Amino acid sequence: MTLIRIIVLLGVIAITIIIFSLRDQAEKLQAYGYPGIFFLSILSNATLILPAPGIALTFAFGAVFNPIGVALAAGAGSAIGELTGYLAGFSGQGVMKQTAIYDRLEKWTDNYGGWTVMVLALIPNPLFDIAGAAAGALKMPVLEFLLWAFVGKTLKMLLFAYAGARSMDWLLRLMGG
After folding, report:
1. C-alpha–C-alpha distance, residues 133 and 138, integer Å
2. Per-residue pLDDT for the chain (177 aa), expressed as one digit of tens each?
3. 157, 74 in Cβ contact below 8 A?
4. Which residues does 45 contact at the CB level (< 8 Å), separation at least 6?
5. Which stretch of DSSP H or E encloses residue 165?
6. What three-state secondary structure class fits 58?
């Protein structure tokens, strides 16, 4: 079991490095509409700690596509992308336990389960990777984690997609269009 956890952790690290190095290729996926949004969201959320432009892309796509469709595609992709944090927690339970924030998130996840995952997925914050790791370390069922992450991420992406749609309308009116 320890060997499997080490292999999974190394895989997560490799995925993070690969996705971070491919971040400049995101423009090519934009041409594919909702499937492109879905895959960009996976890539944006599969990195651990390293920044990726997922929310900015959702904002921009909300001005071009139907905001509800954008939110659903981005929310699903984001939830799947967050599996790297979940797997990091499952594989390397001792990796983050030394931090106070991890201990607090693990306690919240242990006490409130999926609600913690959903709330932290809903709020734009860099702590979701740590919350995913806590869920993995606590052996939350993966489908339960995905469901709660999907709900929170989709609601968050809906807000950003509509903000993008409304700001584009405002900008066009401002420019006399």
Report:
1. 9
2. 566 656 655 654 555 455 445 555 545 656 678 898 898 888 888 776 555 667 877 887 887 889 999 999 999 999 999 898 888 888 765 555 567 777 787 888 888 888 988 998 998 877 787 788 888 888 899 999 999 999 999 999 999 999 888 886 666 676 665
3. yes
4. 52, 54, 77, 78, 79, 80, 81, 82, 84, 153
5. helix 142-174
6. helix
Domain ranges of the chain: 2-174
Residues with Cβ within 8 Å of residue 58, at least 6 apart in sequence: 37, 41, 70, 71, 74, 157, 160, 161, 164
Backbone angles phi, psi at 106, to 5 degrees: -65, -40
Backbone angle region of 33, left / alpha / beta, with phi > 0 → left and psi within -120 to 50 → alpha: left
- DSSP designation for 1: -
